[in-house]
Specification:
Helix content is about 40%, strand content about 15%. The protein is an alpha/beta fold.
């Protein structure tokens, strides 16, 4: 626990000091032919997702003014729609297109892409005096917790180990209907019913197509004997429930959506019933009546909410200040509040959130890049000091934000012209500022997320599934499984059990069992090694 506390300590500073804005290469070295001190002109190709900030070009121009004599670097940033980024990056990597810096994550393609050799190993750039900004911003303990197969392939981008999920609602509408502050799913349902009854032009609850209801209605018990959603092992092509013995020393097996009930019956209670894992899909079907009709095509439900077209939006607490600003700009009479839908987090309970002490978001340098040294020099510049970091995370001081205290910032009338996704590039435990525009309730929850005793360590922490032995099977089942996933997440199929069983049979014909066996084998080998 002492080591975990050392890892977490810098992140505690994050909430008090840091920016809470709103998510195997065979080569052992760089493929860059230029030296780190080179100042020859270079253009770096960067791939992120989301909407390009209106004033992005102004910030890039300011970056050029500040760094031309030292970096002489131009950034060519491609912003993809969030729903397209995962597939688009896969296609570029497979085609061998040169990209210098890219966003990836365990919940996207990170582990699979590392196993396939798509990313460069970056060990040499950290704890290196030639890159003092990186050395200062990324502690060895933090890097160690985010290594894969003992090496650094991904740069962890985070300001804490969790960003609590909330439902944003319109406080002004709730009060209009005479309802008390929402503290339960039943009360949220009453609110949505009132919206449906009184605001016929509004969508009661706007969801994102590939996210759906996300973690709503999920199981809240600590995962001490299982790894399943929302903490499932990634990279397997479809999600498995990995079940362990009570002493966490033996992998008993793995189940997945659509498995016959006799497969579940092999395991101890409560894992012997598929409804323990998937029964909440019935609730999603019931709640679908509040959701927009074309939800599968929806890529930005937050825009529907902040423009006044929907009355509720699922998101995370770090987005509070930005969400309130956007809503107020479009609907001046609107008031924002939120409902924390996980009851343990809502009640600020200790040990409520599982973690591996890893970042959820990462930056990678593809193996095709010839500019690794120059890319890492840019990142070294970015994390070298507060002023450089503020420029990319918040924009131009005095235009997009203003200082409030030593480590806080306030919005300006132009803040929304630079709504940069810091969680993709800049979030950092020691440099990110805190928004002074957060409400007292939001600050209470944000502070809770920084405290050591909020978390418990997940079983199999540090285990990364190596996809190489079953990469062919994963390539077959992943796109097939992905066709049903958003349908179930959004509650669009009342007969989801039958649909899942049919899908399961198809996946078995494509190699599902081989992947399952490999997952169990690797997880057991990891446990055995950990105990030796």
């Amino acid at each position: 626990m002492k080591k975990m506390s050392k890892i977490l300590a810098p992140l505690v500073v994050t909430a008090l000091l840091g920016g809470l804005l709103s998510a195997c290469s065979s080569s052992s070295g760089s493929t860059d032919s230029a030296s780190p001190s080179s100042t020859d002109p270079v253009t770096l190709k960067v791939m992120l997702f989301g909407d390009k900030p209106v004033d992005m070009d102004k910030v890039l121009a300011e970056f050029s003014n500040r760094s031309k004599d030292t970096l002489n670097t131009t950034l060519d940033i491609e912003f993809n729609p969030a729903a397209d980024h995962k597939q688009k990056t896969k296609l570029k990597l497979a085609a061998g297109e040169a990209v210098d810096l890219m966003f990836d994550a365990p919940w996207m393609n990170l582990n699979q892409n590392i196993s396939q050799g798509f990313y460069q190993e970056l060990d040499q750039y950290f704890n290196n005096d030639e890159y003092p900004g990186l050395k200062k911003a990324f502690s060895q303990e933090f890097l160690d917790a985010n290594k894969v197969n003992g090496h650094i392939y991904a740069i962890p981008i985070t300001n804490m180990f969790y960003d609590s999920e909330v439902i944003y609602i319109r406080k002004d509408l709730r009060e209009k209907y005479g309802l008390a502050p929402i503290q339960s799913y039943d009360e949220l349902k009453t609110y949505l019913d009132k919206v449906k009854e009184n605001e016929p032009e509004m969508i009661p609850f706007a969801l994102m197509g590939d996210r759906g209801f996300f973690k709503m209605f999920g199981n809240e018990e600590p995962q001490t004997q299982v790894r399943t959603e929302p903490y499932a092992i990634s990279g397997t092509g479809t999600t498995f429930n990995l079940i362990l013995s009570e002493d966490q020393k033996t992998v008993l097996g793995a189940t997945t959506l659509g498995d016959p009930e006799e497969e579940y019956a092999k395991y101890p209670a409560p894992f012997n019933n598929s409804d323990y894992f998937y029964g909440n899909n019935d609730t999603k079907v019931e709640w679908n009546r509040y959701v927009q009709k074309d939800v599968l095509n929806e890529k930005d439900p937050g825009a529907l909410f902040t423009s006044g077209k929907s009355a509720a939006n699922e998101g995370t607490i770090n987005g509070y200040a930005s969400m309130r600003d956007r809503l107020k700009t479009a609907v001046p009479e609107a008031e924002l509040e939120f409902f924390v839908y996980n009851s343990k987090i809502r009640n600020l309970e200790k040990g409520a959130i599982g973690t591996e002490y890893k970042a959820w978001n990462d930056l990678v340098i593809p193996a095709t890049s010839k500019n690794a040294d120059r890319t890492m020099k840019f990142l070294d510049w970015l994390f070298a000091n507060q002023e450089n970091h503020d420029l990319f995370e918040l924009g131009i001081e005095g235009t997009h934000w203003s200082t409030s205290g030593e480590k806080e910032y306030k919005s300006t009338d132009n803040t929304q012209n630079y709504a940069f996704p810091g969680y993709e590039l800049t979030w950092n435990p020691t440099l990110s500022r805190i928004s002074a525009d957060n409400s007292e309730d939001a600050m209470k929850l944000i502070t809770y997320q920084t405290q050591n005793d909020t978390y418990y360590k997940l079983p199999l922490s540090g285990f990364v599934f190596n996809t190489e032995p079953v990469k062919t099977e994963i390539a077959k089942i992943q796109p097939k499984a992905a066709t049903l996933d958003p349908i179930i997440k959004n509650g669009l199929d009342a007969n989801w059990r039958e649909s899942a069983a049919g899908m399961n049979k198809e996946l078995r014909n494509l190699g599902l069992e081989k992947i399952r066996e490999e997952l169990v084998k690797q997880a057991q080998a990891f446990l055995d090694q950990s105990q030796s």
